[in-house]
Fold this protein.
Amino acid sequence: MASTKLLARRSVAAALGLGVALGASVALSVSVPAGQAEAAQPAALAPVGAGQLALGHLGSIVVGNYGAVVGALDPNLRRQLNTDVLARTWADFQRAHGSYRSHGEPVVAPRGEMSVVNVPLNMSSQRGQFQITFHPDGRIAGIYLLNA
């Protein structure tokens, strides 16, 4: 049985120096009969596609287009995260790390059927990291703003 767990913390974590996380706890378990694993599990997004998708969502957050990001959330995450929460969390992250200046290249790590993308953030006071997890169809399963 393959199991993927994505853990999320509230914006209080930023005050504790643990990073700001957006999202809900999600547990996904997949059970596949022996010998059918490759055929039964959807493939993760292609690394280039996942990286570009991550940069698009980061760009939407930076310019304040929170609705574009919330619209791409999976149903579990959408129950926990709305445009107001995303806006407040981005503002909290900038208060803790300084204003956004730029970002580095996305690094994609497949995790079973999911694609986890990490993007280094260059903020005015200290570095940060944007992490986003995608389902194979491109829906967002997890989204985090972390200390670097």
The beta strands are 2-6, 20-22, 26-30, 100-103, 107-111, 114-123, 128-134, 140-147. The helical segments are 12-15, 37-40, 47-62, 66-70, 75-78, 83-97. The mean pLDDT is 78. The domain at 2-32+43-147 is CATH 3.10.450.590 (Nuclear Transport Factor 2; Chain: A,).
